[in-house]
């Protein structure tokens, strides 16, 4: 087991990427990077990390910001519950912990939005606590190296892989081991077409020996994708446009959007025209083509219905066009505004 850790840490020292959150033991910065990199590629998350560190150098600075400021800075990253939890946790640390970041795994995991992986990352990277990380990279490496067929999304699988990961982490350098196995999974033991001929573990990798690399890891559940149909009414008059805040517990909560009609199935242009004639006595100026937006568990098909008048009952929703730059918007809306030149 020691040989496995020695080999991947030796590989890491030669091949690691120079990433800013690796040059610090500040738990705030490590936490920030981990939250940003959830569901986000490193190349995309880098600029967001640097922006947040510049705007909020400490956890107290983040706590003092408004939620809208934080959501604005997060715009484009998606999974906005991460940003809301980030802000709520910063306020908790500032108000309940005296501005000092918790220093143990057992304390860190109690923070809102922090799961076992993130808590282990912060505890090991910042405080050298012996806690093994287990995420997609680790599942993939261990399932291949030891040729494990237990589904990683099963209760027994999660327990088996955690116990195995715990048995591999050295007590003297848990931070280096965790960084190494994560980087190895990201750069070498990749999900598709890993370069096994160039891997220093190829003489002991059981999946390579047994020719099961492409079959590892095993999952027993398939993610069901939900189809949704969004129809956004773009009511514009002079230099004003109508927007509303999403308050329901759903995607993009607390972000702003155009007045929305959601349908269970696709609507034709004739059906959309009839709907708006009936509800606000207006005929669309034009209706955009379909815009596709893919989330992890949802496929959203959108059309934008433009009007050159704002109905009287919607005047309270009207803002200046220039104010669109100052409010947090879903990436789908933001991209359409850019493309339409609004």
UniProtKB/TrEMBL annotation:
SUPFAM superfamilies on file: DNA-glycosylase, Nudix
Group of enzyme by EC: hydrolase
GO molecular function, one term: 4 iron, 4 sulfur cluster binding
Pfam families: HHH (PF00633), HhH-GPD (PF00730), NUDIX_4 (PF14815)
Annotated HhH-GPD domain residues: 36-187
Annotated function: Adenine glycosylase active on G-A mispairs. MutY also corrects error-prone DNA synthesis past GO lesions which are due to the oxidatively damaged form of guanine: 7,8-dihydro-8-oxoguanine (8-oxo-dGTP).
NCBIfam families: mutY
Protein name: Adenine DNA glycosylase
The species this protein was found in: Taishania pollutisoli
